[in-house]
Design goal:
With 430 residues, the protein is α/β, with parallel strands linked by helices. The relative contact order is 0.15.
């Protein structure tokens, strides 16, 4: 059973390079099946989620060629099946992006109901509503979502809630529908914009991505393209908070600072120094951290995927902070693990009340999901003594070489499999 062994107490210092955005890659890889021509995608993160999606695409006949670790060539001219029910597809939420892509191109698709992290209900009602508005029949049978249409036609639809997944899915389905589609109350996240740019580079006609109204004029076909995925906002934010929590000085390279504004603003509020350049952000934490209040919101608000990381930081700040989670209702499951490390946090419904403590102490803990797992690693880096973290497969779903990048910044962290390896680590770090 692989786990991370971590000895805390070292400030993180140095530079770290951020990989491609996992959430953008998942949407873009799915959209690559919408043309029969070859598509070349660069800056693909080599993480479990993207690899599972590529396997799922291969299972229906897509030819996937990895040119190197981060460059993938996709050719979907020989798709022989429009049913994706393999077990592995249940492991990742983004499997449902293949619905919109296949429905858009072939007017039919069947995909297993999605899995992913257990952080609360993620209903697919808005996806279904969007597909129906474009003229598709949608039903759920035997754990599959089945969509089909004689033809798709543009429509004007209003999303009841801001949802990234449904915005992406409906956008893909609408690209080759007849006429114009207008999506109101659309999600504005960077990866929505990245997907729109990718589809436009294939010949789609999408305007307004990044605002709350997206307009799509249907085209009859899409062509091949070459495209570079944006850097990962959440990976960057995770390293920013790792610098803050360990009282470090880290320059995070290969980022788009604009995507990180809500994270930078909170770090400034709690007393960190931030330096921005064109494609890098430096975080220096030389003073004790102060308290603040934060509420997760759709982009450009504070991201729900950064909520566990800021909670870890506020757990070590002076005074009382309040964190309100407005996106996912089940997102505080990690607090029990953090409490074992000495944090003083009370959760009431969707709110965490945090009384800052002077230090965390090492403990044996488990990662409950992807982002919380990464946040617990950060807590362990700041803690006194040694921490072991189980279930690191969650973390590897979305962070490439996480422990190696942390090592390069001076962290004492290793991946261990046996008790013997753990003892060796403890002996080494003293």
């Amino acid at each position: 059973m692989e786990q991370y062994a971590i000895k805390g107490g070292n400030p993180l210092v140095g530079e770290v390079e951020i990989g491609g955005a996992k959430n953008a890659a998942l949407a873009i890889l799915a959209a690559a099946v919408m043309t029969d021509e070859t598509v070349l995608i660069e800056n693909v993160p080599d993480v479990r989620d993207t690899n599972v999606l590529l396997q799922a695409m291969e299972s229906i006949g897509v030819i996937v060629t990895k040119l190197d670790r981060h460059t993938v060539k996709v050719n979907a001219s020989r798709i022989h099946d429009l049913v994706i029910e393999d077990d592995y597809i249940k492991k990742i939420r983004a499997s449902y992006y293949l619905l919109g892509a296949l429905l858009g191109k072939y007017k039919k698709a069947e995909v297993a109901l999605p899995g992913g992290c257990n952080i609360g209900l993620r209903p697919i009602d808005q996806h279904i509503k969007g597909f129906r508005a474009l003229g598709a029949n949608v039903r759920i049978e035997h754990g599959l979502i089945i969509t089909e249409a004689e033809k798709l036609h543009g429509n004007h639809l209003y999303m009841d809630v801001v949802t990234v997944g449904a915005t992406i899915n409906v956008m893909m389905a609408a690209v080759m529908a007849e006429g114009q589609t207008i999506i109101e109350n659309a999600a504005k996240e960077p990866h929505v914009v990245d997907l729109a740019n990718f589809l436009n580079s294939m010949g789609a006609n999408i305007k307004g991505a990044g605002t709350d109204v997206i307009r799509i004029k249907g085209v009859s076909r899409l062509h091949g393209t070459e495209y570079v995925i944006i850097p990962d906002q959440i990976e960057a934010g995770t390293f920013m908070f790792a610098a803050a929590v360990t009282k470090g000085d880290v320059t995070i390279k290969n980022v788009i600072p604009k995507h990180l504004e809500s994270i930078s603003a909170k770090l400034l509020e709690i007393g960190c120094e931030i330096e921005e350049s064109d494609d890098a952000v430096r975080v220096v934490a030389s003073k004790p951290l102060g308290h603040t209040h934060v509420k997760t919101l759709p982009y450009p608000g504070f991201p729900t995927d950064m909520q566990p990381q800021i909670t870890v930081a506020l757990g070590l700040s002076s005074g009382t902070s309040i964190v309100t989670e407005s996106i996912f209702e089940n997102r505080f499951k990690y607090v029990d693990e953090l409490t074992r490390m000495g944090a003083n946090i009370k959760v009431e419904g969707n709110t965490a009340i945090i009384d800052g403590v002077a230090k965390y102490t090492g403990a044996g803990i488990s990662a409950p999901d992807l982002r919380a797992g990464a946040a617990l690693v950060i807590a362990a880096l700041a803690a006194e003594g040694t921490t072991t973290i189980d279930d690191i497969q969650y973390i590897e779903r979305g962070y490439e070489d996480f422990h190696l990048k942390l090592q390069s910044l001076g962290a004492q962290i290793e991946k261990v499999e046996t008790d013997r390896e753990l003892k060796k680590f403890k002996f080494k770090v003293g």
